[in-house]
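Internal tracking record. Fields below are filled automatically when a chain is submitted to the structure queue. Please do not edit lines marked as system-generated. If the sequence contains nonstandard residues, flag them in the REMARKS field before resubmitting.
Queue: standard
Priority: normal
Entity type: single polypeptide chain
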Amino acid sequence: STTSATTIQLRGTAGSELVTFASGTNLAQIRDAINNLINATGVSATVSSVSVGTAASALILSSTTVGSDAFVSVEAIGGNFIRNDNNNTTILKRGTDASVLVDGQQASVRGLEVNVRSGGLDAQFVLTRTFAQTVSSATFTITGGGALFQLTPEVTPNGQINVGLNTISTTALGNPVIGRLYTLRSGAGNHLTSKNFLKAQQTVAEAISQVSFYRGRLGNVQKNQIETNINSQKVALENVTASESVIRDADMAAEVSALTRAQILVQSTQSTLQIANAIPNFVLSLLG
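SYSTEM-GENERATED OUTPUT FOLLOWS
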């Protein structure tokens, strides 16, 4: 318990609050006071029965979020606030992101969210807190690759792409750590009447982030793969059309040349026949 009136500045990912404790306030009361501000600070408190120094128990402060963005800061403003960090005036602890290998490749991790893009694999999933805080492994199986799109005239793997999205519903948006979107409905755990404002805000923010990610992913496929392929096919069609026109023009020139040659041959034949027919008359005129 506190031996005098104590004031601390408590900071977390959600905000900052000044907390004052009267002399004689025990750890359970301090814990409850901090937890009453959990939506304003993003910091939760528990009492540990593990002795620290001469104290039989200790107050443990934790961030409600995880990863490198999470932090807890405690600054002693006034009074006697016992700390276990070299007796510094201010304590600042930051979280770390999990380190994850997927099929031997280092994945991109932010908090508990894992994104992996390696070879033909493009996946996103969320770790549980327990799994992320221990050195462990798990096996998962990909049973489908989403919708298959054929982009080229030749039916080959090089001309095909797979586009898959997670289920976009209230039971899927959000994550199991902070809650799914359906928990905001009336009577559910994160409804406004439950006063879990921080979790409700985090759930909405996570759902918006996921929808934005899916939109960006579909937009990327549409812009950089489908539309690019369409433009390529249009250029190929224009080239084929131009080649066909050249071939047709060449065929026309050849036919015109053949016609002219035939006309010359006909005219030559007619001239020869006329001369041949004129010879007997010419001979008779000489004899007469």
